[in-house]
Design a protein that fits this description.
alpha/beta, 9-stranded mixed sheet, ThuA-like (chains A, B, C, D), ThuA domain-containing protein (chains A, B, C, D), 239 residues, homotetramer, Class_I_gatase-like (chains A, B, C, D), Rossmann fold, globular, Trehalose_catabolism_ThuA_prok (chains A, B, C, D)
C-alpha cells in the first residue's frame, strides 16, 4: 500500500503558532502518525511542489491519498481536482482531513456544498464511536477527547454517509458527523473531522490511529487501469 | 389517516411526579399534540385495556401506531409484538418514542439489541436537525432545546438508519442519533428519542410537531390485505 | 409545484425515426404524460433556447426539473451544469431520464463516472418494482414491460442509491438499477432509466406514471433562498 | 477465523437426486469450497446433531457461521435462533445461503418477512457484479452463470441492504438482489442467493469463491464477551 500525504503547507510557513506545533509541516506529523501505526510506505507532497505535488506518476503510484488543505483550496487547479476524483473512481482510497471538507476534490466527489457551522475557539471536543465494530474504530475507545479543537457543527452538507463511524460533541453545544465513509466508483473515501492547524491534533495518538485505520480501510483491492467507459456490448450468445 | 397512540400507562398511575405532569397519561398528551398539529383521527389505548389495547380490529384499523413503553415491556405479549411487527411489514407506520427503543415490537423489527447508555439526571438536551429538508424536519429550527431530559448516549445498537434526521447533544457530554427512519417491508418506522416520563417533554411544541411530522411521514400509501407469501410463480409467457 | 422539462431536442430535428415518434419533441411527450397524471404546472425548454433553456429566472422558478439529453451533453455549458447542481443543493428536485445519466448536471451531483454497458437493439425490457411501498411505485404493477428499448447493464457507476425502486431485466441477459433515488443537499434526485429516442417509451402510460410519481417525490418542501455558507457561529449562550 | 457450516441435512438423506449431487451433504461441499479458497479452520454441523448442531461451546467458538436450511426451518428451536442472532449482535459473522432467507435466525435479524417469488424449474441464472470493488467480488468476473438454478424474484422482502454486491438475471424473466450485506449490532451478515439442493451449485468454483469471500468479509475484528446492556452512565467528570 503506497500512501501519499498531500498538504497545502501554507499556515506552517506563515504563522509561528502553527510552525511551533508542526515545525516540519502537518504532512510530516500525519506521516509520522501513519508510520507509528505500521503504515510504512508513506511519502509527503505539498501544494507548492511541482505539479502541485501530484504529477501523474505520483498520483498514479498512490493507493491511498491523504488530503489536508484549508486556505488555499482555490489554488488547487481544476485539472488536479479532476485527476484526483478520477483516480478515486478507479479505485484509489482518499482520506480527507478536517478543513479538507471544503477542498475541490472532496466537493467534486460529494456533489454537494460540504458547508458546516464552525467556531475556532479551541474548545473541548469529545468524539464518540458510533460503530464500534467498524474497521476504522478498531483500537479506539468508546470516546476520546481533544482538549482544544475548532468546532464544526451540523448540518454538514454532504450526502448521507454510507457508513457513519464517529460523532463529535463540542463543549459549546454542537454535534457533528466526524467520521464518514463513502464508496464512490471503485474507490473509498473516509472523511475525518479533527485537525485544526493551531492545535496539536495530529500529535494525538488516537487521532493517528484513526487515520491509519482509515488508510487501511480505504486501501483498494485493485485499481482499474483505465477510465471507465460507456461500453457497447453485444448480445450474450449463450441465451 | 387513522392514528393510534399506545401507552403502557403505568408510571402515571404510580408516581405522583409523573401524574402531575401527565394527569391524563402520556398518551393523552401525545394525542393532544397530534391534534394541535392537524392530525385529527387519533385514538388512545393502553396496556391494561382488553387485549393489551390492540385487539385485531383496532390494530387492523390503524394506519400509524405511536408507541410509548418503559417499565412493562416484558408484559407485552409476544403475540402482540408479532402482530404489530407483521402489520408494519404490511404497510402500517410505526412511531416509537423514547424508551420504546427497548420495546418488543421495535426490537423485533430492528433485529438488534437496541441498547443505549443512559442517565436520568434531567439535564439539558439540544437536538440538532441534521437533514433540514427531510419531511420530519419541516417547521423545526436548526436546533431546539429541552431543558431537562434523560440522557441517552451512543452506541445505540440499532441497524444503520435509512435516514438520519436529528442528533442530540447532552450537557453531560454525550451524543445520540435521536431521529432515525427505517423502511421495513412495506412499512415505515420513525424512532424519536425525547420523552422521559418525569419531564414535560410531550407538552413541548416542537416535540409535538416532530411527532406529527413523523406520523405523516410514516403514513402508508396502501396497506397490504394479507400476509406476504413465498409465491410460486409460473414462467412469464411473453418471453 | 412548478415543473420544467428540459430536452436537448436534437435527435427529433435530425432523425425522421425519432421525429416520427416524437413530432413535438421528447419534452412535449414527457410534459403531456405529466399533465395526464395531474401535474399541471409544466413548461418545456430546450438546449437551443436562449441561455440553453434555463436562464436564471426559469431555473429559479423551477421546483422540479426533468432532464433528457443524449448526444449534446458536451454542449451544455459548465456554468449551467453548476447552476443546476447548486439549485438542487438548495432544494430543487431533479428527475433525470435515460441517457441523462451521462449529462453534466447528473455527473456533477453524483461525483462518479456514471458509465453503463449498453446495446441499442430494441429488445424487451421488463421493469420490476423492488420497493412496492415507495411513493414512486404507487399505481405501478409488480412489473411492466417495454417491448423495445435500449439495454443498459451493470455496473452502473453511480453512488449506492439512497433508495432503490426499480430493477430492469433485459431479454439479452442484463440487469440494471433503473429507478434510483438520491438526496443531495436539500434536494432530491430520481434517476429513471427508460427512454431511448428511437422507441415510443414516453408514450407508455406506466412510464408516464412513474415520471409523475418521481416529480412528486422530488418536490421540495422549501427551497433555500441563498447559497449554503460555511457559517461562523458564536457560542450558544444558554450553556 | 473459526468457521462453522450448519446444514439442515434432510434432503440429502431422503432424495436420491440430492444425495447424488451431494453424497456427503451440502455442508461438506460448502466446507470443501471454503478450504479450496484458503479458509482452513472449517467444521460442519447439522440439524440432527446434539443441540441441533450448535451447543454453546460450538456457537461461542464460531467466528463466522454459514447457514443452509430449507424444509425444516420450523424444527430449529426458537432458543437456537435467538442464540445465533444474539451472537451476531456480539460480532459473529453470518453467511446465509439460498433458502436460508426463510430461516429463523435470518428472519429474526432482518425483522421482515423475507418472502420471495420462486420457481424451481432449473433455468439459467446469470449473476452480475454490481459493486466490482467490494471485497466479496474480488476475483469474480463481471458476470457468471449457473446453467440450472431455482428462480428467486423480487420483491425480496428484506430491509434495504447496506451494501448490494450482486444482482441475478433469470432466463424466465425475473431479477433478484442476490448478494446483500448487512451490519447488525457488532456483526456482519451476507446473504447469497444461489444453491438449490437439486442442482450442483456448491460445486461451482465461482460460487465457492464468493462464499469464501463472504466469510472473510464477515469475519469479526473482535467479538464482545457478554451481552449488550442498557448501561447507566455517570456524568463525565472532565466536563
Amino acid at each position: 500500500m503506497r500512501v501519499t500525504v498531500w498538504n497545502e503547507y501554507r499556515h506552517e510557513k506563515q504563522n509561528p503558532v502553527v510552525s511551533g506545533i508542526y515545525p516540519e509541516g502537518i504532512h510530516a506529523a500525519v506521516a509520522a502518525g501513519l508510520r507509528a501505526n505500521g503504515v510504512t510506505d508513506v511519502r509527503t507532497v505539498t501544494l507548492d511542489d511541482p505539479d502541485q505535488g501530484l504529477p501523474p506518476d505520483v498520483l498514479n503510484g498512490t493507493d491511498v491519498l491523504v488530503w489536508w488543505g484549508h486556505r488555499a483550496h482555490d489554488e488547487v487547479s481544476d485539472a488536479l481536482a479532476a485527476a484526483v476524483a478520477a483516480r478515486v473512481n478507479l479505485g484509489m482510497g482518499l482520506v480527507v482531513l478536517h478543513s479538507g471538507h471544503f477542498s475541490k476534490p472532496f466537493k467534486r466527489l460529494m456533489g454537494t456544498e460540504c458547508t458546516v457551522r464552525w467556531r475556532a475557539d479551541g474548545e473541548l471536543e469529545r468524539i464518540w464511536t458510533v460503530d464500534p465494530a467498524h474497521p476504522i474504530a478498531q483500537g479506539v475507545p468508546a470516546y476520546f477527547e481533544l482538549p482544544r479543537e475548532e468546532m464544526y457543527g451540523e448540518p454538514f452538507e454532504v450526502p448521507p454517509p454510507d457508513e457513519l463511524v464517529f460523532l463529535s460533541w463540542f463543549k459549546g453545544g454542537e454535534v457533528f458527523r466526524s467520521g464518514c465513509c463513502y464508496r464512490r466508483g471503485r474507490g473509498r473515501i473516509f472523511y475525518f473531522r479533527p485537525g485544526h492547524e493551531t492545535f496539536p491534533t495530529y500529535h494525538d495518538a488516537t487521532v493517528c490511529k484513526v487515520i491509519a485505520n482509515g488508510v487501511r480501510w480505504a486501501r483498494p483491492a485493485v485499481i482499474e487501469a483505465g477510465p471507465m467507459l460507456n461500453v457497447k456490448m453485444p448480445p450474450i450468445e449463450a441465451i
